[in-house]
Design a protein that fits this description.
Elements (H helix, E strand, L loop, with lengths): L7 H11 L3 H8 L6 H14 L26 E15 L9 E16 L4 E14 L3 E16 L9 E11 L2 E14 L2 E14 L9 E6 L2 E7 L4 E12 L13 H14 L2 E11 L3 E10 L15 E10 L1
Antiparallel strand pairs: 1-2, 1-13, 2-3, 3-4, 4-5, 5-6, 6-7, 7-8, 7-9, 8-10, 9-10, 10-11, 11-12, 12-13
Helix pairs in contact: 2-3
């Protein structure tokens, strides 16, 4: 992608946008923290969409489900992911009687994709997390790096179902991870059905002793459909799940103090397979695209307990820019 900032249309719009308090005045008015990433992503998408040059990107109609297609040879694209879910924390870490607060969890990922050939694609990620903290703050940390390769087995329509393969390795702050996906896709006119059969192998604390080291097998399947309303807009629905294949057994809380017993129960709930379902929205601006989804937690719509990793709703936005 080439940014022609000398173009009167592109430069004029970008200069006008950057030179006014539009973005800064808009974000504070969004009172709900969960919606602020959406406002920012939409604003950035509009900036790039109204620049003059268009190019073929590789958009993702569904935020969690990878498509079958790969980038063209020599193409470069950046994708910015934002995951958010509202969780609960103690209002005062030293006094549980003060009640609890809502505090969102954020996960931010930046991925650079490059087309080695028309069928092979490389990707490189940086991962950041903001974990909710007691008292109503969060701890923003760099979580680690990921690298992956993706390929497709045939041209679209040559097989009854279009098939792609995805392999990833991650070096996070507390674990090493391998990830594999089988990418499936089928078109029915304007309707497109996609699924990712997704598994992971996680080795926690790989450099520590046996007392801390843990090997876990995680499943993360997705299934969704999107319907193309026009050249720029697609609406859809998506299901995804995540959890350990063999979760923790019921904890023996005999003799534990109440706080330790509750922590053991929370750890077991976090390991269970959690299911989500919700609507998705995709906007394609040519050289920029935006996908977002809002998913209801099917396991439990009640308020989560402090320490639980999944709230009653999960939101993901993905902003893609063709470079």
């Amino acid at each position: 992608m080439i940014f022609n900032i000398n173009s009167s249309r592109g430069a004029g719009f970008v200069s006008a946008f950057a030179g006014t308090p539009l973005l800064h005045s808009l974000l504070p008015r969004v009172r709900l923290p969960l919606l602020r990433p959406v406002v920012l992503a939409v604003a950035l998408a509009l900036v790039f969409a109204l620049s003059p040059k268009t190019a073929a990107a590789n958009p993702r109609p569904l935020p969690f489900t990878y498509p079958y297609e790969t980038l063209a040879e020599g193409a470069l694209e950046v994708e910015v992911y934002s995951d958010t879910t509202p969780l609960r924390v103690q209002a005062d870490p030293a006094d549980a009687s003060q009640g609890r607060l809502w505090e969102p969890y954020y996960k931010l990922q930046t991925e650079f994709e490059y087309g080695l050939t028309d069928r092979w694609e490389l990707g490189f990620y940086q991962v950041f997390e903001a974990e909710p903290q007691a008292g109503g703050s969060n701890a923003f940390v760099f979580d680690g790096l990921k690298a992956r390769v993706r390929t497709r087995l045939a041209e679209a329509g040559e097989l009854p179902v279009d098939i792609g393969l995805y392999f990833e390795v991650a070096n996070l702050h507390d674990e090493l991870e391998l990830e594999e996906k089988l990418l499936l896709s089928r078109r029915f006119g304007r309707l497109r059905v996609m699924s990712n059969l997704w598994v992971e192998q996680e080795l926690r604390r790989p450099y520590d002793g046996d007392a801390h080291r843990e090997l876990a097998f995680v499943i993360n399947p997705t299934l969704g459909a999107s319907y193309q309303l026009g050249t720029r807009v697609q609406l859809g629905a998506e299901y995804w799940a995540r959890g350990k294949l063999a979760g923790r057994s019921d904890p023996d809380t005999t003799g534990m103090d109440p706080a330790a017993a509750e922590a053991a129960r929370v750890a077991k709930r976090n390991d269970q397979v959690h299911h989500f379902l919700g609507p998705t929205f995709h906007f394609n601006f040519g050289r920029a695209w935006l996908s977002m989804g809002v998913y209801a937690h099917l396991n439990d719509s009640n308020k989560p307990q402090p320490g639980e990793a999944y709230g009653p709703v999960w939101m993901r936005t993905v902003l893609g820019l063709d470079l």
